[in-house]
Automatic annotation (TrEMBL):
Coiled-coil features, chain-numbered ranges: 72-99
Organismal lineage: Bacteria, Bacillati, Actinomycetota, Actinomycetes, Micrococcales
SMART domains in alphabetical order: HTH_MERR
Protein name as annotated: HspR, transcriptional repressor of DnaK operon
Classification via SUPFAM superfamilies: Putative DNA-binding domain
UniProt keyword annotation of Glycoprotein present: no
Keywords: Coiled coil, DNA-binding
Coiled coil is among the record's keywords: yes
Matches recorded under Gene3D superfamilies: 1.10.1660.10
Molecular functions per Gene Ontology: DNA binding; DNA-binding transcription factor activity
Species of provenance: Microbacterium esteraromaticum
All copies of domain HTH merR-type, residue ranges: 7-75
Length: 143
């Protein structure tokens, strides 16, 4: 089951979280744990919501204020989003590297433009200067 799928009615969610349904309503009103809604407006809680409710109860019992708990939950959501984005970027970089075999060398043209230099191409020193060559794991001269 998808952890974000809103499937539990408020009574079931309250029981799973070990709370009173009125507490869940209050948390929803203040934006602490906001469940999904049906077309009719009924609250539907996901497993992630249940986990957050349990975390709120634990932190609250340890003396943390509700505004501090809200900030912590926001930061946890941001970390989750950033992790997903980092994985997307790593996958895109891996795909880019797989689609461009070999070592790439770039040079600056006489007008300042960036010029990719093909493998084995000789650079005329009077008009172009090598700027960057990425490291390669298979290149023994690098590292």
């Amino acid at each position: 089951m998808d952890a974000d799928a809103p499937v539990f009615a408020i009574a079931v969610a309250a029981e799973l979280a070990g709370m009173h349904p009125q507490t869940l309503r209050q948390y929803d009103r203040i934006g602490l744990v906001v469940p999904g809604r049906t077309r009719g407006g009924s609250r539907r809680y996901s497993m992630r919501d249940i986990e957050q409710l349990r975390e709120v109860a634990q932190l609250s019992s340890e003396g943390m204020s509700l505004p501090a708990i809200a900030r912590l939950l926001d930061l946890e959501d941001e970390v989750r989003m950033l992790r997903r984005r980092a994985i997307e970027l790593e996958n895109a970089l891996r795909a880019e590297r797989e689609n461009r075999p070999g070592v790439r060398v770039f040079a600056a043209g006489a007008t300042g433009s960036i010029v990719p230099v093909g493998s084995g191409r000789r650079i005329r020193r009077a008009t172009e200067v090598v700027l960057w060559r990425p490291r390669s794991a298979s290149d023994p001269d690098q590292g």
